[in-house]
Amino acid sequence: MRIIHSEDHRLHFPQAELSGGQFVTPFERPSRVEYVLNRLKERGLTDIVAPQAVDMTPVQALLDLGYLEFLETAWAAWKAEGMAGEIIAANVPARGMHMDRIPNNIDGKVGYYCHASETAITQGTWRAALSSVACAQSAQRLVAGGADHAFALCRPPGHHATADQYGGYCFINNAAVVAQMFTDAGAGRVAVLDIDFHHGNGTQSLFYDRSDVMFASLHGAPQDAYPYYLGYGDEKGAGAGEGLNLNYPMPPGTDYATWGAALDDAIAKITDWGAEALVLSLGVDAYKEDPISFFRLESNDFTDAGRRIGGMKLPTVVCMEGGYAIEAVGINTVNVLEGLQDA
Ligand code: OKP
Ligand code: ZN
């Protein structure tokens, strides 16, 4: 399996994340990628290449142009306003306020385009986000060209990013861009399967009313887990997308028996629907030791999950999402990839 990786992910590393009322070193940090790369090499997965240049056409087709412009220019505007630190949202439009009037002031704009203030924007964030989507796009081209699988070692991750909001460590929704590229190329049915511990609210919202992309997500129940305000089981899609959004919210302490049953259900529905291609949003934060999550998967469960997903025999683009138990991130990620290949 070819792996697409860019060093430019390092351009995004905020000094701090707001967590529990304190500024802490971000959980989503560059060393996560190092652990994955080291494990890939240890396991003989050494076909690692840099991405081709980013193609903005599908990105612009899918996302809000004002949002993209904001991400590209926010740092300069923030600094021009004399702000001393990194960009952190301190205000957001809330109940009873205008949701669709965009302020001129950069501090107001930041809140408009942000849904979670733990995520900072830095000088290099835009370029890092573009390198991440470039990895995903190169992986898509390989799979569209006939490869069974390709792994985009995306960082920053993408699944919380919507058409016009960043948050949850995500800026551009890499997996959604891949799905869009498949449909642009003529695929009538593309499935996005999201096994990150957190609900893929961005991916859900981007495809909620579309008949050509099915979205299935296994995640911590929103009553108990970020992103809190989306991801309930009764969110089933709308209009032409009715029935094509599948949420599997699960409670604290969920183990592989329960999680694996949800996975099997999602796999059966993707298969019955007749998906032609699969995008796997691969977070490994369902792991028992993850510092910000509450499922109980063991490392070998990730291998089994990879096998079950690989059993669909669909052309598959894997996009890296979350996973914060730093040393196990490499093992668990590569376990999924090996399971996929073995299936
Ligand atoms: C991104 B991905 C830590 C709370 C962190 C945001 C979690 C973002 C997860 N005190 N909240 O889905 O792994
Ligand atoms: Zn996650």
TrEMBL record:
Ranges where the Histone deacetylase domain occurs: 28-338
SUPFAM superfamilies: Arginase/deacetylase
Entry keywords, A to Z: Hydrolase, Metal-binding, Zinc
Cofactor(s) required for function per UniProt: Zn(2+)
CDD domains the UniProt entry points to: HDAC_classII_APAH
InterPro entries in alphabetical order: HDACs (IPR000286), His_deacetylse_dom (IPR023801), His_deacetylse_dom_sf (IPR037138), Ureohydrolase_dom_sf (IPR023696)
Pfam families, sorted: Hist_deacetyl (PF00850)
Keyword Metal-binding: yes
Catalytic activity, EC: 3.5.1.-
GO molecular function: hydrolase activity
Domain of life per record: Bacteria
Coiled-coil segments: none
UniProt record similarity statement: Belongs to the histone deacetylase family.
Name this protein carries in UniProt: Acetylpolyamine amidohydrolase
Organism, scientific name: Roseobacter fucihabitans
Lineage: Bacteria, Pseudomonadati, Pseudomonadota, Alphaproteobacteria, Rhodobacterales
Gene that encodes it: aphA
